[in-house]
């Protein structure tokens, strides 16, 4: 796995590089500003980019803008975005624009090495990884929604883990239940959220989008 890191905090940037290299991952370049990051993407053609949301010069959304441009230049590039705090609108937009090979983690997650590496590998493999704290805050600020209120507590647990990007086996392990129970809960979630089978919509993504949009303040 070839990785480029875009992070303006020198300590975090070098710390990430050391951590990943210690795991035998190939960090091919690091950058402290968007221009250098895009140059590295062009030159190195990495598999994954780890990008800070807020970068110079204004420290607003330069990292996101650069990540979008990097994916335009290198289709199929996996992007794992890091943020210092929960930015809920971005979490929602992340899935709305297509969730494959995308992740959004809080920077504090880097210190939980096993979880961070799990998210990195999941994104690199084509999946989605959304920080559990983002999901928890969205749940805490939930607005009334008739369809969401139909869900049982366990079904809400399953949907929250789906929103993190976990697959059925990982959900089963997290909840200490069998795969069959997870499949049953997901079928029930689809039914209660009025998501019938269709060739035009991925029901799993639709369910997660419904959850995120209706728990956004």
UniProtKB/TrEMBL annotation:
All residue ranges annotated as the HTH luxR-type domain in the record: 144-215
Pfam families: GerE (PF00196), Response_reg (PF00072)
Keywords in alphabetical order: DNA-binding, Phosphoprotein, Transcription, Transcription regulation
Start and end residues of each Response regulatory domain: 2-122
SMART domains: HTH_LUXR, REC
UniProt GO BP: phosphorelay signal transduction system; regulation of DNA-templated transcription
GO molecular function, one term: DNA binding
Keyword Transcription set for record: yes
Superkingdom of source: Bacteria
Transmembrane segments: none
List of residues that carry 4-aspartylphosphate: 52
Entries under PANTHER family matching the protein: TRANSCRIPTIONAL REGULATORY PROTEIN NARL-RELATED, TWO-COMPONENT RESPONSE REGULATOR
Protein's recorded name: Two-component system response regulator
Species assigned in the record: Streptomyces gancidicus BKS 13-15
Organism phylogeny: Bacteria, Bacillati, Actinomycetota, Actinomycetes, Kitasatosporales
